[in-house]
Write a structure and sequence with these properties.
184 residues, seven-stranded mixed sheet, 6 helices, 38% helix, Rossmann fold, 7 strands, alpha/beta
């Protein structure tokens, strides 16, 4: 069993922001896999296929860990079988990276997950770019909507991240890293 977690914030005001890219990727996977039934459960939204659980924690980003831990425990999924899809300011917009384990890099959602699960989960890092102007601009950047240029490129980023998740599930994390993490 795999648990795919998309990070985001609840509420319509955040629906189309950079910070909600994880939710958008889960929506794409749900569409591809013809998963129509999402249920409110464990402090989030859950959808299930035979071997995969899709989960969107509906706490705010910095509180994603507890509901994810509860979901993983219910489905008896170990951290190494959890794939977290999230926004990443340390990657240029549109870039993707697959990563196994590691630190949180200042990402509050990853910090919360690591506190609850340890750091051994897998990640699909979706580049949303870093704002100019320093750290004080980060919150506004990730909670802001996509620029016009980004709106055109966002479907490619979302589709590529969904492809990366599917590659992890089919061929494993090493194969996914070898394919996705190359600069193209």
């Amino acid at each position: 069993m795999w648990l795919i977690v998309g990070l985001g914030n609840p509420g319509s005001e955040y629906a189309h922001t950079r910070h909600n890219i994880g939710f958008m990727v889960l929506d794409e996977l749900s569409r591809r896999w013809s998963v129509r039934s999402w249920k409110s459960k464990f402090g989030g939204e859950v959808a299930q296929t035979d071997q995969t659980v899709l989960f969107k924690p509906l706490q705010y980003m910095n509180l994603s860990g507890p509901p994810t831990r509860t979901t993983a425990a219910f489905y008896k999924v170990e951290a190494k079988q959890i794939v977290v899809v999230h926004d990443e300011i340390d990657l240029d917009f549109g870039r993707l990276r697959v990563k196994s384990g590691g630190g949180h890099g200042g990402h509050n959602g990853l910090r919360s997950l690591s506190e609850q699960l340890g750091a051994d989960y897998l990640r699909v890092r979706c580049g949303v770019g870093k704002p100019s102007g320093g750290k004080e601009k980060v919150t506004g950047h990730v909670l802001g909507g996509f620029s016009k240029g980004e709106q055109q490129e966002a479907p490619l980023l979302i589709g590529g991240a969904a492809d990366a998740v599917e590659l992890i599930l089919k061929k494993g994390v090493t194969a996914a890293m070898n394919q996705v993490n190359t600069d193209k």
